[in-house]
Amino acid sequence: MNINKKAEGSTLYISLEGRLDTTTAPQLEAEINQSIGGVTLLEMDFEKLEYLSSAGLRVLLSAQKTMNKQGKMVIRHVNETIMEVFEVTGFIDILTIE
C-alpha cells in the first residue's frame, strides 16, 4: 500500500493506494499518529484503495475517535467495494463519507 500525505496548515490530507489490511494497517496507524498533532481536519482519499480489512477499519475508528476530540475527519472518493464494507459493518454511521 502507498500512503501519500500532505499537510497544509491545520489540515492533513492522506491518500491511500492499494490494500489496507493486516499487513499495512500498522503502517497507516503510525503515519496518522505521527502526523495528527495540531490537525483540525483529517481528509482521507480512498479513490485508489482497492481493499479494506477489519484491521484497516480499526485504524479508521481510532483516527475518528482522535479527530472527534480535535476536529473533523472526512473520507472522500470511496468506491463501491469499500462502501459496501462500511455499510455492512455500520461504519457508514460512524464516519463522514463524501
Could you characterize the architecture of this molecule?
The chain has a single domain, classed as Transcription Regulator spoIIAA, CATH 3.30.750. Helices cover 39% and strands 35% of the residues. It is built from 3 helices and 4 strands, in the order ββαβαβα. The protein has helices at residues 25-35, 54-70, 80-89, and strands at 2-8, 11-20, 41-52, 72-76. It has a 4-stranded mixed beta sheet. Helix 1 packs parallel to helix 2.
SSE run: EEHEHEH
Q: Which regions have little confidence, pLDDT < 50, spanning 5+ residues?
A: none
Computed Rg? 12 Å
For the record, the count of structural domains works out to 1
The geometry reads as: globular
Q: What is the CATH architecture assignment?
A: 2-Layer Sandwich
Q: What would CATH call the class?
A: Alpha Beta
Percent helix: 25-40%
In this structure, how is the largest beta sheet organized?
A: 4 strands, mixed
Would you tell me which CATH topology applies?
Answer: Transcription Regulator spoIIAA
Total number of strands: 4
Mean pLDDT across every amino acid position: 96
Give the strand order of the largest sheet, numbering strands 1, 2, ... along the chain: 1-2-3-4
Helix segment count?
Answer: 3
Cα distance spanning the termini: 22 Å
Q: CATH homologous superfamily?
A: STAS domain
Structural category is: alpha/beta
Strand content is 25-35%
Helices, strands, pairings?
Blueprint: E1 2-8, E2 11-20, H1 25-35, E3 41-52, H2 54-70, E4 72-76, H3 80-89
Parallel strand pairs: 2-3, 3-4
Antiparallel strand pairs: 1-2
Helix pairs in contact: 1-2
